[in-house]
Design a protein that fits this description.
38% of the residues lie in helices and 31% in strands. The protein has 153 residues and is an alpha/beta fold. It has one domain: Nucleotidyltransferase, domain 5 (2-Layer Sandwich), CATH 3.30.420. A hairpin with a 5-residue loop joins strand 2 and strand 3. The longest helix is centred in the C-terminal third of the chain and has 18 residues. It is globular and about 50 Å long.
Length: 153
């Protein structure tokens, strides 16, 4: 099984409901030791930071054509803790209701993320944002650039 590193970040200007974007970097080193790297970014006119954080991971996973071992890196505790702290399992068991009895926000994207993640063996890793992590900084640049392009539309 191939091991892929997926780095992702989201951004929103005027959160909530301002322009936003996501940035993703995928890295894979093949059997010959050759590094393959791809970048993805997209902007939206009205969104939230959390939606962009989720969508970045989703888009990255959806690029993978075969089951892989995936190391996901994100500065979003919203995304990482949902898996590492079991929030998402609890939400599903409770019919997508949180512990405060309110509906889970962004259910559409959580369900899409679960579908995209299903074929893979995923390790969810939190990285501190804006702390000099090269791939996180690159994803932040991609996400912010995508968001900024939407401000002019």
């Amino acid at each position: 099984m191939k091991t892929v590193q997926l780095f992702s970040d989201g951004a929103a200007r005027g959160n909530p409901d301002g322009p936003g974007g996501y940035g993703v970097v995928l890295k894979y080193t093949d059997a010959k030791g050759i590094l393959h790297e791809r970048e993805y970014a997209e902007g939206f006119q009205k969104t939230t930071n959390n939606r962009m954080e989720l969508l970045g991971v989703i888009v990255g996973l959806e690029q993978l054509k075969l089951p892989c071992r995936v190391e996901v890196y994100s500065d979003s505790q919203y995304v990482i803790n949902a898996f590492n702290k079991g929030w998402i399992s609890s939400w599903q068991k409770k019919g997508w209701i949180k512990s405060d009895k309110k509906p889970v926000l962004n259910r559409d994207l959580w369900e899409r993320l679960l579908a995209a993640a299903a074929p893979h063996d995923i390790e969810w890793n939190w990285v501190k944002g804006h702390a000099g992590h090269p791939e996180n900084e690159r994803c932040d640049f991609l996400a912010a650039s995508a968001a900024d392009k939407m401000k002019d539309l």
